[in-house]
Structures are given as structure tokens and as C-alpha cells.
Amino acid sequence: MEGAAGYVALCVVWIVAFGGGSASSVDDQVCASPSDGDCNDRPADGGGNKYAASQQGDVRWQPYLHAIGAAMAQYKECPDQNCSCFQSQWESDLEPFKDGIDRKMIEEAKDRGVHYQIIDHKLYRQEKCMFGPRCEGVEHFILELIDELPDMEFILNDRDYPQVPRRSVGNKPIFSFSKTSEHKDIMYPAWSFWSGGPAISLHPTGIGRWDKLRDSINKAAERAPWSKKEAKAFFRGSRTSAERDPLVLLSREKPHMVEARYTKNQAWRSLQDTLGEEPASEVHFEDHCKYKYLFNFRGVAASFRLKHLFLCRSAVFHVGDEWLEFFYGALKPWVHYVPISTSLAELQQLLDFAAANDFILHLIASRFDAFPFSQFL
């Protein structure tokens, strides 16, 4: 199958492969009381008025409260029984191929990724794969559903960076796990749901086995409900981008407010790579759940950590909106996470807002339970 329909089928079965279970109601999970006390006074989760009333005495918070109210007024929960939450992303990614995918497109794309074919419910792959565990991670889920897939062939990018700039001539049908609005790649669930994620000391063969990590982090979140979490911003990771520097520097200035340090990665050569201090030890995802505010930064492309952070039921501060994964479009700022610019210019004020509006941050942190694929994200 060389047409775009084959690509739609593959997108659907990959996402279905990760799904299962029904989402719980956010109203069952969140109490408006900062102490998790009597929930009978809990405000309804959906209108904007309660946010405007939260801190009327401090005009500093009004822009944030207005943004939250506006976001909630426009937000509609996605159904948990189908993939409609991601339909707009598929449609956007496949728009260039609305007239079909021909042999020439496939041939021109072959040097940008790994060539796969499915013929008579058997999976074939070119011999060379630059990152073996990444191909293994993708193949694991395809093979689980191989009997349901029609004949097709496709090119899968196993690198970090997308391969089809929007300014390029012609359309190349290439699956990539991450991209920006300046790329025409077709996004798909990353290999790291099974294997091939970043290799760190805590995961020397790479972060993977999402099913096991999900269960482990969920248990850690149960041990650290909101009322027991430490009211600090937390980050631990390598210095792949200077965008992370302001948070690390604020941590050194105000350790009571922020715990953020750089770790060593494969590119580490000197203290300059960790902003003048010795690299810190890595921290298990489960131990992130001890903190109320977790920061997510991009890496070379989109960060693999975001889906893990949400499981802690902590408030995720998502930095920047340039880099995407297939599910990002269904996550809404001020509904599922706290948005913050890549410059981090508003960092201090946002942390002050969080401290002064604890129950609102609790609502945001808990709302991910109502996300339709929280069972696999």
C-alpha cells in the first residue's frame, strides 16, 4: 500500500497499541483544599470565575488567572475510547500526501531513514539501522499488530532530528518521533516506549519499557500525594541546551525554592559543561514525584522525559512550544501544564504564583488523570 491511507492505518495501530483502560474523573481526584481536607467545598473544574477569585488581592497573578480561565473555557475533554484527540495532528501531517504517495516519493526518502515493508503480514527491514535499539523499539509494537496491518512500505527516521524541512522541494513521507512547525515529517510514537531511549547511569541500556516505568512511577506518585510533596521546582539533566541555565542558576541562588542541577552526559568534558560545578548524580523518575513542580526542557529535539513527569501528578512546567511529539497537540497550556518561555524570563514570578495559588497548581497537576491516554502516557 503506497497511498496515504496506509500511513493513516499505521498511525492508528501504533497509538492503539499503547492504549487501554479508562481515565478517571479529575473531580474525583482533586480537592480545592490545599491540605487535601474536606472536598465538599471543591469548586467545579471548568469555569474561569473561580480562578479570577483565587487571589484578587494580588494584581500580579491576574494575567495567569485570566489565561487559566480562558484555557478552561475553551477546553473540551477528549473521548477515551478512540483516537480523535490526535486526529488533527494526523490530518496536518498527512495533508501534503492527500493525493497519494508514489514510488518516486519512497525512493527519494530512503536515504533519510530506515526502509520497512509489510508484505503478507510479515515485517521486513533494510539491514542497516543506525540505532539498533530504536528500530527494535518500533518493531516490537508493529509485530504485536502485524496480523491487522495491510501491505505497505514506509521510511522511519531513527535519528533524533527531523528530516524534511518545510522549505524543501517536494514531499518525502518520513516518520519522525519529533519535529517543529518548520518540518514536514509525519510524527509517530517514539521507540522509547519499548527500548532505545537515552542511556544514562540509571538506565545504561537506554530508557525504555514504558509499561514497567509507568507502573513504578504511578506507585511513587501514590506514595507522594500533593499534600506531601515538597513545594520546590525540580530538574535534573544534562546541559544539552543553555535554555536550562536560568533554572540551575536560580537553584544556586535560592535552594529553598529550586533544586536543579546538571548531570554528566557522553559529551561532558569539563566543569564548563555543568556550568562551573561538579556534575550531580542522576535521579530516578520515581524520586521526581517528591516535588510539586517539575520542569521539562527540550533536548536535541523533544524531550523523552515529559510523559514520565506527568505520571508523578506534580505540576509540569513545560518550557517552550517549538518541539513536538505526536501527543503534544492534545495537551493544553494551563489545563495540563504550566507554559513557560524558553528565555525563562518569567521564571521567578511563575514560581511565586505557584506558591501563592497552591490549589490551582494542584488542579493542573491532577488533570492529567482525565487525559484519554493517561494509561500509556
TrEMBL record:
<dbReference type="Pfam" id="PF05686">
    <property type="entry name" value="Glyco_transf_90"/>
</dbReference>
<feature type="signal peptide">
    <location>
        <begin position="1"/>
        <end position="23"/>
    </location>
</feature>
<keyword id="KW-0808">Transferase</keyword>
<feature type="domain" description="Glycosyl transferase CAP10">
    <location>
        <begin position="148"/>
        <end position="369"/>
    </location>
</feature>
<dbReference type="GO" id="GO:0035251">
    <property type="term" value="F:UDP-glucosyltransferase activity"/>
</dbReference>
<keyword id="KW-0732">Signal</keyword>
<dbReference type="GO" id="GO:0005788">
    <property type="term" value="C:endoplasmic reticulum lumen"/>
</dbReference>
<comment type="similarity">
    <text>Belongs to the glycosyltransferase 90 family.</text>
</comment>
<dbReference type="InterPro" id="IPR006598">
    <property type="entry name" value="CAP10"/>
</dbReference>
<dbReference type="GO" id="GO:0035252">
    <property type="term" value="F:UDP-xylosyltransferase activity"/>
</dbReference>
<protein>
    <submittedName>
        <fullName>Glycosyl transferase CAP10 domain-containing protein</fullName>
    </submittedName>
</protein>
<dbReference type="GO" id="GO:0045747">
    <property type="term" value="P:positive regulation of Notch signaling pathway"/>
</dbReference>
<comment type="function">
    <text>Protein O-glucosyltransferase. Catalyzes the reaction that attaches glucose through an O-glycosidic linkage to a conserved serine residue found in the consensus sequence C-X-S-X-[PA]-C in epidermal growth factor-like repeats. Regulates Notch signaling by glucosylating Notch in the ER, glucosylation is required for the correct folding and cleavage of Notch.</text>
</comment>
<dbReference type="InterPro" id="IPR051091">
    <property type="entry name" value="O-Glucosyltr/Glycosyltrsf_90"/>
</dbReference>
<dbReference type="GO" id="GO:0006493">
    <property type="term" value="P:protein O-linked glycosylation"/>
</dbReference>
